[in-house]
Amino acid sequence: MPDSVMFYIAKNPKTAELYLKMVKTCKYFFIKNEIIVIVRLEHFRGKWSVKEKPLDLTKYNCKYWITDNIIASASKFVDKNILSPIIPKLYKCAAKSLCLFSQVVSFTDLSLLISSAEEIYLYDVIVKKCDSVIPIEDIVAIAINAKSVEIIKPVITSKTMKKLLQIPHFATLNRFTLCDLSEVFDIDAFYAYMKENQHTMFFLDFEESISDAFKNRLEEIIDEILETKVFSYKPPFIDFDGLDQEKHEKLYRIYIKNTF
């Protein structure tokens, strides 16, 4: 093969599997494009690791190709921005599962990590663009391949639900879970969509500080679900502090029964 063709092939591997076959066949391909393929990348206790072995991602000149999972926690650390230092080292992120805990992430960095993810878990994660905190609708908008989204302590506005409905792939999500929701959430916009939704399993959990008036509105919606004999929509699970235990258990059974 001409050198130009070999160089192009070395610099433009289509998949991680193909790249691994290439470097096993000939070391030329690794010399020309030094990439380490990582299936599962983890961060706990201040260290990145692969297969439970520490890995200093900034130590080597090579790039990294993440293929399956990223699990990263910055809990108990003052510096919550643990992703930015490794972003320049990524050749490509094709992770199908993204799980982040207790972090401050830039919107630009998250855009790189989330685009391929089918399962997304964000627990107490703040996403910033310049000095602004990004609400969840902007996160969902860039999660174009998502099938399941779970967010704990989501940043929302009164327009969040309406804006979510404007995102085409929001309607194709299999699961959408929000926990520690404030009453800023537009429950009436959700209620209207809920009665038409035939695809997404919704799990909504509200924070303790919601008002009695908001609790009453939630209970009205829950009562309607419990009184329904035949569902023309996917019944959600809705929970809040003070919900009657019997209603809680019955609603959960309905939710689970209609999951599949």
UniProtKB/TrEMBL annotation:
This is Uncharacterized protein. It comes from the Eukaryota.
